[in-house]
UniProtKB/TrEMBL annotation:
Keywords for this protein: Hydrolase
Name listed for the protein in its UniProt record: 6-phosphogluconolactonase
Biological role: Hydrolysis of 6-phosphogluconolactone to 6-phosphogluconate.
Organism of derivation: Paracoccus onchidii
Record NCBIfam families: pgl
Catalytic reaction list: 6-phospho-D-glucono-1,5-lactone + H2O = 6-phospho-D-gluconate + H(+)
Top-level taxon of the source organism: Bacteria
Organism phylogeny: Bacteria, Pseudomonadati, Pseudomonadota, Alphaproteobacteria, Rhodobacterales
């Protein structure tokens, strides 16, 4: 794991957006299309705002979330809504977007079709992960139903998740997909998350799911 500390959140957002764009561009230059997996939550908004204006060939980039809350796309807790407002606009409006919320009654009904839609875009070129203070990432929450299966090296690509720390059922990409990304970045801000990261480094993924992705990751932190 590499830890990058920034003097402030603005510097972090500018520098990280630049890094993500250059890794996508590098993949595009090599001739293939690229995929970008991003987190929901509140932290990534400034990174999305900068990234959306970067000059790469977005038409050849497929964007999807690492997890989605099972709510309509216009619900205030929808991660897709956040992406449409802050990332999939400006130059990045040209990107292809795979929406993990299918409108099925339950996330369980959506995993097979979504797995088919995502497969052509794997391995993920660039994965950006967030982390909660409880050390969850994507919707891999400590104590969630099925967490051991989601963290297995041969996990199904996507799983429905129900967990105490989550307000609604969710769908999440799992270890087998997220840990195979060509480039992995973790974005955290503030002292509590820094402390949680340090705790996670000493724990097993079943207690600290972010741990499963740290070995090959660059962690970006600002106060
Ligand atoms: O849908 C979600 O909630 C996320 O994808 C989740 O994994 C998020 O990255 C962390 O919970 C951090 O969230 P914050 O950035 O809001 O602290």
């Amino acid at each position: 794991m590499e830890l990058k500390e920034y003097p402030d959140r603005e510097m972090l957002a500018l520098s990280l957006a630049d890094k993500l764009a250059s890794q996508l561009a590098q993949q595009l230059r090599s001739g293939g299309d690229a995929s970008l997996c991003v987190p929901g939550g509140t932290t990534p908004t400034p990174v999305f705002e900068t990234l959306s204006g970067t000059d790469i060939e977005w038409e050849r980039v497929t964007v999807f979330l690492g997890d989605e809350r099972w709510v309509d796309g216009d619900h205030k807790r929808s991660n897709s809504r956040l992406l449409r407002r802050h990332l999939l606009k400006d130059r990045a409006a040209g990107a292809r977007y795979i929406d993990l919320f299918t409108g099925d009654a339950q996330p369980d009904d959506a995993t097979a079709d979504l797995g088919q839609a995502l497969t052509p875009h794997l391995p993920i070129t660039v994965a950006l992960l967030g982390m909660g203070n409880d050390m969850h990432t994507a919707s891999l929450f400590p104590g969630a139903d099925g967490l051991a299966q989601a963290l297995a090296k041969d996990s199904p690509m996507l799983m429905p998740i129900r967990a105490e720390g989550a307000e609604e059922p969710r769908i999440t990409l799992t270890r087998s997909v997220l840990s195979n990304a060509m480039h992995t970045h973790v974005l955290i801000m503030g002292p509590e998350k820094r402390e949680a990261l340090e705790r996670a480094q000493k724990l097993d993924p079943i207690e600290a799911p972010i741990r499963a992705f740290l070995d090959n990751a660059t962690v970006h932190w600002a106060e």
